[in-house]
Amino acid sequence: MLLASMKKLPYFLFRLPEGNELDGMLTPSRLQATPSSHLEADSSALPPVVLLYGMLGEPANWTATAKALTAAGYRVLIPQLPIYELPLKESNLQGLIAFLERFLDGACPKTPVVLAGNSLGGQLALLYALRHPDQVAALVLTGASGIYEVELGTSTMRRYDREYIRERAALTFYDPRHATDELVDRVQLTLNDRQKVLRLIRMARSAQRETVTERLHELTMPVLLIWGRNDRITPPDVAYTLRKHLPAATLHFIDRCGHAPMMEHPALFNTLLLAFLQRHFPPVAPNGRQASAFVNSPSTSSALPAGT
Fold this sequence. Notes:
- The structure is a single chain.
- Helix 2 packs across helix 10.
- The chain has a single domain, classed as Rossmann fold (3-Layer(aba) Sandwich).
- Helix content is 34%, strand content 12%.
- By secondary structure, the chain is of the alpha/beta class.
């Protein structure tokens, strides 16, 4: 049974109202995917899309994207990354790569996937692709680390200072209103846990060491870069470096956008993502012809031409 499998795999599942079972995130009550205008597609012919979040992130960062992708016929997986659960000595990117290897071997064995990652999740996607290029059909990177990050503020986190945490969280976004009370509460709870803080520190140091610039030329699969033009953590120069060294990369900037475009401008982010996926992996209708799947998300003229 579907619900029974939730206990075996570190990600959640939900159902479309018609009863179709799709891999996704959150719980059925919080994320109800509804049918939108699209041709019936055979998702078995499409590569699964795996969404990876950042170091202080959570699966819910990808809610809007998961909805859009499943509505367009794509299978979506969002693993719960064991950032706080790995043994202390394994709290590094190599530990996350090993986890992702086990996860994908169980969830979609011998099936090339599209890896989409934000921040640390983008660096994880790059490192996994370098180790398993034949298992990655395409990459989608947004605010990805692995080149360099700008260190914002003091290196000593005042764990009990709520306003300081709110200020730091707000720097993630162009619009500070995205640093909600719920987000601040979650980060503060994490930073008040000594064991979690120790693992965050080790993971952050690992991310600084595991840079990928010199090996980017090895990644020949299609790559979509969606970047916030106002990203203060991985500035636009990081995106330009990725585009320069990745042989098949396309770069789009989103104006008035910070480090998490899929959260701050989900409609535009999803429009760019779906256009990329449908260009490289068009859905197949039951009659065997290519189908043009689309979602009811507002189109926008803010998207920049490829290579901008």
